[in-house]
Amino acid sequence: MRNLLPVLTIVTAILVIWYAAAVALNAQWVRDQATRAGHELSLPALVEATWSQDKPKLPAPHQVAVEIWQTTGAMVLAGRGFSKRSLFYHSWITFSSTALGFLLGTALGVALAIGIVYNRTMDMSVMPWVIASQTIPILAIAPMIIVVLNAVGISGLLPKAMISMYLSFFPVVVGMVKGLRSPATMQLDQMRTWNASPAQTFWKLRLPSSMPYLFTSLKIGMAASVVGAIVGELPTGAVAGLGARLLAGSYYGQTIQIWSALIMAATLAAVLVGLIGLVQRMTLRRMGMA
Amino acid sequence: MSSNTVISAQDLSLTFQTGDGPVHALKDVSLDVGKGDFVSFIGPSGCGKTTFLRCMADLEHPTGGSITVNGVSAEEARRNRAYGYVFQAAGLYPWRTIGGNIRLPLEIMGYDKAEQARRVSEVLELVDLAGFEKKFPWQLSGGMQQRASIARALAFDADILLMDEPFGALDEIVRDHLNEQLLQLWDRTDKTICFVTHSIPEAVYLSTRIVVMSPRPGRITDVIESPLPKERPLDIRETPEFLEIAHRVRDGLRAGHGDEV
Fold first, then answer.
1. Which domains, from first to last, does chain B contain?
2. What are phi and psi for residue B209, nearest 5 degrees?
3. CB–CB of B81 and A195 under 8 A?
4. pLDDT at A144 > cutoff 80
5. For residue A256, is it within any domain?
6. How does the average pLDDT of chain A come out, rounded?
7. Chain B interface disruption, residue of A182, A186, A191, A193, most B CBs within 10 A
8. Tag placement on chain A: N or C end, fewer CB within 10 Å?
9. A129 lies in which domain range?
C-alpha cells in the first residue's frame, strides 16, 4: 500500500500528458473539418472532438480502454472470449511463440555458457560471434529466417519462435558465463581438496552459484522474446498475433487498434517478466539466498 | 625419514614466473612431519608458509625437490582424500544449511545417506555446534562459521588437517576460545595438524613444533621443538617456558628479516 501513492502519481501524470498530446496532435483535423463546414468551434467543443475521432493521430486513453474492453472482457461476457477478433486470442498466439522461443533461447544460452566456461577454444571463439549476432538488426533478418525455414518446409510456430530465441539467448549466455564463473578461487580449490569430479563441481558449486545471475538474464530474455515474437509476426503476413494486429491496424489507419495491441503486448511482457520474478523469489528463498 | 613420518619434503622449491622476473616462493625447503604432530608455520607474508601448505595439498606444483604425504605423492594423497583443508575464510555455501555444508564433501565422496547423517552430527558435536544443523550460515557468527568449516574438514575423517590461518579474520577473544577447542579436538582425534599463522602466541600455544620461515626466497630458518606439556590451559601463556619459546620464535623471525629491518 505504501507504493500506491507514487504509482498513482506517475499514472496520473502519464494520463494528463497523453490527453494533452491527443488534443495537440488531433486539433488540426478538427479545425479543418470545422472550417470546411463553415462554423466556429468553442474550446470545449474542440477538446471534446479531439478525444472522440474514429481514426485519430493519437487516440485518447479512454478510447484505447474502450477498444481493449470490447476486444477482451466484453467478448468473454458474450461467450466469444477466444474468437479471432479477441485480443486474448491474439495474445495467446504471440505468447505461444514467445514461450517456445524463450525456452529454446534459454536452453541455447545455458548450453553455450557451459561450453564457454569449460572449453578454452569455445571461450576464445564463440563469444565474439554471440556479440556479433546481436549487432545485426533483427528486422533485417527476420524475413530471411521465415523465408529460409519456409523453403525447407518449416512454417507456423517454429519460425517465429526462432526469432524470439535469437533475441533471448544473448542475455542468458552473458549472464550464465558470469554466473558459472562467480565461485571464488578458494571454493574451487576446496572442491579440488575433496577430489571432486568436474561434474560434481558443476552441479554442487557452479550451477547453484549462478542462480541469481540466471534469473536476471531470464527477465531480460523474456522481454526480448516478446519483442521477437511480435517482430516475427510482421513479415509473415500473419493473420493472427499481436504483431499481425499492429500491422493490420497500420494498413487501415486504425490507430486505436494499434494502441490497444501495443498495450496488450506490454501487459503480456509485464506479466511474463513478473512470473519469472515470482519463480526467482521462490527459488532463492528455498536456497536461503533471499 | 622414520616409519611414522606423515609428510616429508626434500629440497622443495617453487618458483613463480612473473612479469618482474622469477619469484622464489620456496627454496630448498626440507621438513618431516611426524604422525600426531601439531606443526605451526610462522613468518612474515611472502615467506611461503601458505605456499608450502598448498604444496602438501597438491594445490600448487613444486618446481623442484620432492614432497610425499602418507608415503605417496601429494597428488595421490589428494586423490585418496588424505587430508582436510581449512581455508582462511569459512567459505560455507550460502544456499546450504550448516548440516548441508558439512554433508557436501561426504556427498562428493559417495557416503550413503545414513552415514552422512551420522558423521554430520558427530562432527557438529566435536566443534560444539550441535543444534545448529538446520541453520543457514548467515545466521551464525564468524567464529561459529569457522568452526563449521573445521567440522566440514573433519567430516570425512582424514588423518591430516591442513589449516591456513583459519582464525586470522577473528577477534582475539574468539580466537583464544577456538585455539583452546582446537587443542582439545587434536587431543581427542589424534590427527596430524599443519597450521599456518602469523601470530606468535598462537603458534607457541598450539604447537608441538614451530617452523619459522623467512621470505625472499621463502625458506625455513628455525624449527623449534616445544617442551610444553600436551595439557595446555590458556594461562600457560604466562609461564616462563612459554615466554622463552615465544622469544626464540621472535628472534628467528628477526634473524630472517635481519638484512632489511
1. 5-82+160-257 (3.40.50.300), 93-157 (no CATH)
2. -140, 140
3. yes
4. yes
5. yes
6. 87
7. A193
8. N
9. 87-286
Q: How far apart are CA B60 and CA B78, in angstroms?
A: 12
In this complex, the residue of A193, A200, A204 whose CB is nearest that of residue B78 is A193
B211, B215, B191: which is closest to B203 by C-alpha?
B211
What is the predicted pLDDT for the residue at A241? 84
Hey, what's the cell of B185? 579436538
CATH of the domain at A188: 1.10.3720.10
Q: Enumerate residues 168 to 187 of chain A having a beta carbon within 8 A of any beta carbon in chain B.
A: 184, 186-187
Helix, strand or coil, per DSSP, at residue B83: strand
Whether residue B22 has a cis bond before it, omega within 30° of 0: no
Q: Tell me what pLDDT residue B261 has.
A: 39
Residue A77 lies inside a defined structural domain of this protein: no
Residues of chain B contacting A, Cβ within 8 Å:
57-59, 78-79, 81, 83-85, 87-89, 91, 93-97, 104-105, 107-109, 136, 138, 156
- Please tell me chain A's helix, strand, coil percentages from 3-state DSSP, rounded to the nearest 5: 80, 0, 20
- Residue A170's pLDDT band (boundaries 50, 70, 90)? very high
DSSP A206: I
pLDDT at B2 over 60: no
CA B67, B69, B73, B74 torsion-angle sign:
negative
Q: Same domain for A41 and A95?
A: no
Contacts of B58 in chain A (CB under 8 A): 192
Beta-bridge partners for B85: B162
Render pLDDT for A75-110 as a digit per residue (tens, 0 to 9). 777 777 677 778 888 889 889 999 999 999 999 999
Confidence of residue A171 (pLDDT cuts 50, 70, 90): very high
Same domain, residue pair A117 and A190: yes
- Provide, rounded to the nearest whole percent, the portion of chain B with pLDDT above 70: 97
- Chain segment A251-269, per-residue pLDDT in tens: 888 888 889 889 999 999 9
ipTM: 0.86
pLDDT digits (tens, 9 = 90+) for B91-137: 899 899 999 999 999 999 999 999 999 999 988 988 888 899 999 99
From residue B26, alpha-carbon distances to A83, B67, B150, B198, B220 in Å are 79, 13, 27, 17, 9
Helices A4-37, A43-50: crossing angle, 10 deg rounding: 110
Give the angle subtended at the CA of A87 by the CAs of A81 and A89, to the nearest 5°. 60
